[in-house]
Amino acid sequence: xxxxxxxxxxxxxxxxxxxxxxxxxxxxxxxxxxxxxxxxxxxxxxxxxxxxxxxxxxxxxxxxxxxxxxxxxxxxxxxxxxxxxxxxxxxxxxx
Length: 95
Prior knowledge:
By secondary structure, the protein is mainly beta. It has one helix at 15-25, and strands at residues 28-33, 44-50, 57-63, 66-69, 87-93. It has one domain (3-93). The protein contains one helix and five strands; from the N terminus they run αβββββ. It has a five-stranded antiparallel sheet.
C-alpha cells in the first residue's frame, strides 16, 4: 500500500477510533508490545516513544526493532535514551 493511501489519523477528530475503523475495514488489528531487547522483533513495525519536539508520544516506522522512518518533516525520530520505554506496534490480520 502506498503512503498516500494511508490517512493521517492524528489530524482527524477521534483519531484512535478512526485508526481502528480503518483497520477493521481491511480485516486488520493493531497490537502493542513492550520488550527488553528490541532486536527480538523482526520485520517492519510501529515504534511509539517520546517525541524530541515535546512531552508527547510520537510514532515512527521501525525495522527489526529500530527506527528507520519518521513521518514528521523534522526526521527527528523518537528519543533513543527512552528505548526501555518504547512500545512496539504491529498490524496483524483479524482472525
